Amino acid sequence: MSGTFEAFESERLDALEAERTELERQLGEGAAGGDRAQFAELGRRLARIGEIIDVAHQAQEALADAEAAKDLLDTSDGDDAAEVSEMLEVATARAAELDEQLKVLLLPQDPNDGRDVIVEIQGAEGGEEANIWARNLFEMYRAYAAAQSGWSLELLGSQDSDMGGFTNVTFAVRGPNVWRLLKHEGGPHRVQRVPVTESQGRVHTSSATVSVLPEAEEVDVEVDPNDLVVDTFRSSGPGGQSVNTTDSAVRVTHKPTGVVVSMQDEKSQLQNRAKAMRVLRSRLLQLQQEAHAAEVAAHKRDQVRGGGRSEKIRTYNFKENRVTDHRVGLTIYKLDRVLAGELDEFIEALASAERTQQLAAALAGAGE
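Above: the chain sequence. Below: its structure as tokens.
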């Protein structure tokens, strides 16, 4: 049996156990010194190391069980042999399963694992149909989030279009594994259907872009108030109609980067500003990560690109009840269920493809 654990030197396991002990000591003695960012980082590292150690020990036990069953099988016969053979099969399968888990755990960790996310959806090409499609995508993600245990969705801001769509909508999603499960949803989503604005029944192609950002905490990004320009204005609805008689809408511009965030859903200027700052910090965190990691930069830039009809990560074809994810070549003929929030097949396929690529890269690096 090939085993990641067998190649996982006992010295390395001992080193991880020593590190776990040291991290527990630091956290217990307040080594972070009141620094919330450092405290959170130490906690995340402790949890990750603990999981690796636990799985390594379980793999060790499973391998020992398999070896014991193999030795026992050599001296068994009749009914005893059949029973021991079954024990060997179970232990071997368990060892293989744990071996795969350990492989994944030993891969470089996504720095955003454990973070919540902020999602932005904008109508792209296709006029009003693209805005209606943006609302459809929002409803799809809201249904998916509602079906996940421990998840919650908070609408941060939106701009309605003339026919009930969204020119843009921004929302936060919180819960276990939110980033891990939603991070691959970023990019242009293309739809092929007969728009409600089409009088002759012709199929049109439109698109909306989805951007998935790791939510930043205040401690992650320092924002100098002197770098901000804050403008207030009256909220407006579709077609420019006024929906508020006070200047409660807020536009925050970060001068060093040119990032602009607007919020108008709340009646209070303070509430709109607080929401705008949450989105601003997340965008700035994204920019920081792009500056420090070329692969992260490429991934993030690819998320939105131009949003054109020819650029897509996924296509939703209403006539054929078909959804195709072009990155993994997966096609599912139940578009209605996907739009109702049943995204698991795509999310699992994308996660599996990512693990496969990471494992291949790790093996290539080990062979150099």
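Residues 10-106 form one domain.
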